[in-house]
Design a protein that fits this description.
CATH superfamily of the largest domain: Aldolase class I
CATH topology of the largest domain: TIM Barrel
Helix content: 40-55%
Shape: globular
Strand content: 15-25%
Distance between the termini: 48 Å
Largest sheet: 6 strands, parallel
Number of domains: 2
CATH class of the largest domain: Alpha Beta
CATH architecture of the largest domain: Alpha-Beta Barrel
Number of strands: 16
Length: 451
């Protein structure tokens, strides 16, 4: 069978709610690539249409589908692209009624009935589609009668083939300027799925944590090095350091095999210690992304962060002492927040002085605990196209308006990035033309976010 897997149209201005030019990044669609690998292994012909990277609008995507004439179309949908997904499915259904349509991703997982009704898809898949995709292709009528399928979670991640990266042009995928060091062309790897922590704003909170074996991960890294010349990896796990023993053994393997790759990861500050950081640094880790969120204890408690402001600061200083760059994520517009509390977070970010700070606007995505209890904390827009973390769709009771919240977000970027200390620190770290290009791109991104 011929299957086309699609990520719907999106432009960077809509992704970031600001005009950032080419300073924004595009990530490889790992979910679709895993699905494609499962299908290819079973002998199916698969095509990927990553609309944002290919700069395709809805009409161009439909033209591509017409040229491919697939038997099946699968669409990966996130909340901000719910309307685009609807338009795509309805357009294909009208022009190509024989194509069988299935939809999956975070938004359909959270609101399957709504997605089924709006898109007119034959099947909506909840959770991890690798579990059911082959049986669905072979027995589609059975699934079409069921309409909403609970795929569950893949129990053994080693059973999955490596993502079908050969179906896309990796050179077209560039990281945000603070996310790479040697090359902007991103190669992303996932060593685990799920997160055991209960943060109320996170879609994957308290989801079942599963880890690939170290030999399986190492096989993929060797493959990436041999086929693509990979020198830099972004580990895209929700929380890379959940299993401390696994991470130490993985780092020792990287060192022993002299992989000579640098890498970064996402983590939590309560899950790092001196021994672990020393081993990670030796194995090539140069940057870590931490969700710090706020400098106000009440706000941290409201989102079930399970850390104190004091602990956050102590662990940031520990990571900094090992020379590992920190990308700190902070949120404004949190449950229970006021402009005064937001400025407390901005001051906290400046005091911590991470290498980069991300200030996103709290967004209660469908499927999260925060979404379910949002009326307790403030008002929520129903304009799904704005659910991307950069628009004030949620306005806490402590704010007068959405405009006041947007102004606070701009203030955060301005106060953090336009400090002489920050600018001088970056200038003194320049060692190559790559650094110059990276910092210039980052500067343009910040300018876009403050306009």
């Amino acid at each position: 069978m011929k299957v086309v897997l699609i990520f719907p149209p999106l432009v960077l201005k809509h992704r970031y709610a600001h005009s950032v030019g080419d300073a924004g990044g595009n990530l490889p669609p790992l979910g679709l690539l895993y699905l494609a690998a499962v299908l290819e292994k079973a002998g199916h012909e698969v095509h990927i249409i990553d609309s944002p990277v290919e700069n395709l609008d809805l009409e161009q995507v439909i033209e591509r589908i017409n040229s491919l004439q697939p038997n099946f179309m699968g669409v990966s949908s996130i909340t901000s692209l719910a309307e685009k997904t609807k338009s795509l499915c309805q357009g294909v259904r009208k022009q190509f009624p024989n194509i069988k349509i299935f939809v999956g991703g975070p938004h359909p997982t959270a609101l399957p009935e709504d997605v089924l009704k709006e898109t007119g898809a034959d099947v909506v898949i909840r959770e991890e589609a690798e579990n059911v995709i082959l049986d669905m292709i072979e027995n589609f009528e059975k699934y079409a009668q069921q309409k909403i399928v609970d795929a569950g979670k893949v129990k053994n991640l080693d059973d999955l083939p490596f993502p079908a990266r050969h179906l896309i042009d990796l050179n077209r995928y560039t990281a945000l300027p603070n996310n790479y060091k040697r090359t902007p062309n991103s190669i992303h790897v996932v060593t685990s799925r799920g997160c055991p922590y209960p943060c109320t704003f996170c879609f994957d909170a308290k989801s079942g944590f599963r880890q690939r074996s170290i030999p399986h991960v190492m096989d993929e890294l060797r493959h990436l090095k041999k086929k693509y010349g990979a020198v830099e990896i972004a580990f895209w796990d929700d929380t890379f350091t959940v299993n401390r023993k696994w991470v130490i053994e993985f780092c020792e393997t990287m060192i022993r095999e002299k992989m000579n790759m640098i890498w970064g990861c996402y983590s939590r500050l309560n899950l790092v210690d001196a021994e672990l950081l020393r081993k990670m640094k030796e194995a090539g880790c140069w940057t870590m992304f931490f969700g710090i969120e706020s400098g106000d204890q009440e706000l941290l408690d409201n989102i079930k962060k399970l850390m104190t402001v004091k602990q956050l600061k102590e662990k940031v200083r520990l990571v900094q002492s090992f020379g590992i760059e920190i990308r700190g994520s902070f949120m404004v517009g949190m449950p229970g927040e006021t402009p005064e509390k937001a400025r407390k977070t901005i001051d906290f970010a400046i005091d911590l002085d991470p290498d980069y700070a991300q200030f996103s606007i709290t967004t209660p995505y469908p499927g999260t605990e925060l979404y379910k209890e949002v009326s307790k904390w403030g008002t929520l827009s129903e304009e799904y196209s704005e659910f991307h973390g950069w628009s004030p769709v949620f306005v806490p009771k402590g704010y007068k308006s959405a405009e006041e919240l947007k102004a606070i977000n701009r203030e955060a970027f301005e106060k953090f990035y336009f400090r002489p200390k920050f600018i001088l620190k970056k200038l003194f770290k320049i060692r190559s033309w790559t650094d110059i290009r990276r910092y210039w791109k980052g500067f343009r991104f910040v300018l876009g976010m403050t306009n």
